[in-house]
């Protein structure tokens, strides 16, 4: 069975985006880009909700060609563009950059993908990850917590039907002040 990890940048008060989908507070450092690039290298397949897919696909396909791109951003952009992705949406008609679109039941498809042979999977996007959390499909949580309070917006965690017990497996603070924490789901 494949491992499913949910990880994103978030504010100290638990939001992945401030009101109005503002993510300007989360501009990552080279160290954070390198961390996420290493995560991508270890991932076989990434699952996206529509909103996060549209955010990522608006920049990363050509992120390595930007004149001010750092080496870490160039590496991240190339890995992102080349890796396999699945987007879950009922409102868009097509995707590209090694991506497959799923318009049906997300939980059923994620369950099917987890049961397949293959390497680890990541999931991104609060709504999609929330459905996977409620279904008990997430094996690991990776939080890159920025030292900023945004006061509202899109929460990293959504409402759950029951508790999810976790085990802390890593804590690390980057020079930029971001704290990385990894938790495994206790089953």
Task: Describe the overall structure.
- With 187 residues, the protein is α/β, with parallel strands linked by helices.
- The protein has a single domain (4-16, 28-168), classed as Dihydrofolate Reductase, subunit A (3-Layer(aba) Sandwich), CATH 3.40.430.10.
- It is built from 5 helices and 10 strands.
- It has helices at residues 30-41, 50-57, 71-82, 106-115, 126-134; strands at 4-11, 15-17, 45-49, 84-88, 99-102, 121-124, 140-146, 154-155, 166-173, 179-185.
- Strand 9 and strand 10 (179-185) form a beta hairpin.
- The chain is globular, with a radius of gyration of 16 Å.
- InterPro entries: DHFR-like_dom_sf (IPR024072), RibDG_C (IPR002734), Riboflavin_Biosynth_HTPR (IPR050765).
Secondary-structure topology with pairs:
Elements: E1 4-11, E2 15-17, H1 30-41, E3 45-49, H2 50-57, H3 71-82, E4 84-88, E5 99-102, H4 106-115, E6 121-124, H5 126-134, E7 140-146, E8 154-155, E9 166-173, E10 179-185
Parallel strand pairs: 1-6, 1-7, 3-4, 3-6, 4-5
Antiparallel strand pairs: 2-8, 7-10, 9-10
Helix pairs in contact: 1-3
């Amino acid at each position: 069975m494949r491992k499913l990890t949910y990880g994103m940048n978030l504010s100290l008060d638990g939001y992945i985006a401030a009101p109005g989908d503002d993510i300007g507070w989360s501009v990552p450092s080279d160290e954070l880009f390198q961390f996420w690039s290493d995560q991508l290298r270890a991932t076989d397949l990434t699952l996206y909700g529509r909103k996060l897919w549209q955010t990522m696909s608006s920049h990363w396909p050509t992120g390595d060609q930007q004149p001010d791109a750092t080496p870490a951003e160039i590496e991240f952009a190339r890995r992102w563009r080349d890796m396999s992705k699945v987007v879950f949406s009922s409102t868009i008609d097509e995707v590209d950059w090694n991506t497959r679109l799923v318009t049906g039941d997300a939980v059923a498809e994620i369950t099917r993908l987890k049961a397949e042979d293959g390497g680890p999977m990541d999931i991104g996007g609060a709504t999609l990850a929330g459905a996977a959390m409620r279904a008990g499909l997430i094996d690991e949580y990776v939080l890159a917590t920025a030292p900023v309070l945004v006061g509202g917006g899109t929460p990293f965690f959504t409402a759950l039907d029951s508790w999810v017990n976790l085990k802390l497996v890593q804590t690390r603070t980057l020079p930029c002040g971001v704290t990385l924490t990894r938790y495994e789901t206790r089953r």
